[in-house]
Amino acid sequence: MSPNAILIRPARPGEAPILTELCIRAKAHWGYDTAFMAAASRLLRIRESEIGAGSVLTAHAAESAPCGVAAIVPLRRPNWFELSHLFVAPERLGQGVGRALFGAAVALAGAKGATHVSILSDPHAAAFYEKLGARRCGAAPSGVDRSRLLPLFELAIPHAVN
């Protein structure tokens, strides 16, 4: 693999702790205080059950440790999935890791029958999702602080007509 190549693969059993740590480190990069990060940590956790369900993807470059993670979960609304996680190691921001993970996560959701993906975005990531074609459709309360509204996006997944 070339030094700039990014490999996206399904997460493997046992990787939940390292992927959770990556999520926490990536979120903390934006300067959130200790109290916020403590409250957010439960929402940043990657679970082994999600890995077992084939819903978690990892990004790897030349280094062996994951440099990004994305996860999708089905919603109650038929044919809709949520991008529940998309985090990139701070030292790899701006290098295409997030874009590659986003594309792979959308493709995975499509393979699982999704026609749309919902994204509750951190405010720092809103421009990223807009640049990748997601449409802002409103705001929703944060799982950490219900009084804090976060940008809500949706993305229609194009499917080939049979």
UniProtKB/TrEMBL annotation:
It comes from Dongia sedimenti. Gene3D superfamilies: 3.40.630.30. Keywords: Acyltransferase, Transferase. CDD domains: NAT_SF. It is an enzyme of class 2 (transferase). This is GNAT family N-acetyltransferase. Transmembrane segments: none annotated. PROSITE patterns: GNAT (PS51186). GO terms for molecular function: acyltransferase activity.
